Amino acid sequence: MMYNYLKFEKRDEIGILSLDRPKALNALNEEVFKELTCFLESNDVENIRVLIITGEGKAFIAGADIKAMQEYSPQNAYDFSETGKRVFDLIANLEIPVIAAINGFALGGGLELALACDIRVASEKARLGLPEVNLGLIPGFNGTQRLPRLVGAGNAMYLMMLGEGITAQEAYNLGVVQKLSEPELVLEDSIKLAGKIAGKSPNALRLVKEMVREGLEMGSKDAGKMESKEFGRLFKEDQKEREEGVNAFLEKRQPNW
Ligand code: HXC
Q1: How many A from CA of 163 to the centre of ligand 1?
Q2: pLDDT for the residue 78
Q3: Which atom of ligand 1 is nearest to the CA of 112?
Q4: Biggest alpha carbon distance in the chain?
Q5: How much is the ipTM here?
Q6: Shortest-distance Cα residue to atom 7 of ligand 1
Q7: Residue of 25, 61, 82, 83 best suited for mutating to test ligand 1, as the one with most atoms within 8 Å of CB
Q8: pLDDT given at position 1
Q9: Are 121 and 177 in contact (CB under 8 A)?
Q10: Chain segment 199-227, per-residue pLDDT in tens
């Protein structure tokens, strides 16, 4: 598949997807969403253990395409918001871990995309924020929901009401970002982290992701029950990865998933 606005590269079991629209700071429009949908539903993601998402040039993603939105009717705007949500849900629901390698500006819809990923690594020089209130807008790709679940309502309100970007260090302090990197090392550090994660049981990683994501939508009692059930299921006879992991530990060797 040829893409206009995406680049994909595989390094061993790690996939690196770059948003490639640097002249518009990788701003998200309907074309970009079409290509992202194509990619996320393709078998490229079936053949990797960890996906990294990053941006070409000086930005990660500077948000939704403001020029394109200028022409929108209420129906267009609603549809755009729904389309973006569907794409970001595809990312959030992938069975493999997804790391956002935030190489530069992650603003508005760009930060919302990073929030749909499982882990965020950021360049110390990156700026992150939700500037929608400067435009008379609100976050429209589930940022109003994902951010408070990640960092609590107070920190989320702070970012959404402030409307100006914060430094990567501040984002790290708030828990928006999990790891800071020197600017030229952000991708390399993300690949290292992905490499470590790629060595773990794929089945366990899938379940960790599912428990956290599904659990956030449920009451904690029901979520706890769901966890017990899945934990129990890991001890069925056909659960080869659990068997291999435990045997490898007891035999003092590396597991082979
Ligand atoms: C369209 C954009 C863009 C955007 C930048 N560009 N951001 N185009 N949509 N979101 C374009 C600029 O118009 C410019 O094009 C080129 O990219 C380079 O940007 P500059 O502004 O010249 O770069 P710089 O001076 O370095 O400033 C970088 C910046 C600034 C601080 C990131 O570009 C900026 O504030 N961008 C907008 C950020 C924003 O408000 N994002 C939220 C959007 S709303 P030309 O043609 O002039 O070279 C949103 C809502 C999501 O995301 C929900 C929707 C449902």
Answers
A1: 14
A2: 98
A3: 51
A4: 64
A5: 0.98
A6: 62
A7: 25
A8: 74
A9: yes
A10: 999 999 999 999 999 999 999 999 999 99
Residue nearest to atom 35 of ligand 1 (CA): 62
* Cα of 130 from ligand 1 centre, angstroms: 12
> In the block, which residue shows the tokens 């940022």?
143
Tell me the per-residue pLDDT of 172-201, one tens digit each, with 9 for 90 and over: 999 999 999 999 999 999 999 999 999 999
Which of the listed residues 28, 58, 66 should we mutate to test ligand 1's pocket, taking the one with most ligand atoms within 8 A of CB? Answer: 66
pTM of the complete model beyond 0.80: yes
Residue nearest to atom 43 of ligand 1 (CA): 63
pLDDT of amino acid 165: 93
| Architecture of the CATH domain 6-198 | Alpha-Beta Complex (3.90)
Catalytic residues: 112, 132
Residue matched to tokens 């970012």: 159
Q: How far is the CA of 33 from the centre of ligand 1 (A)?
A: 17
Low-confidence spans in the chain with pLDDT less than 50: none
pLDDT of residue 120: 98
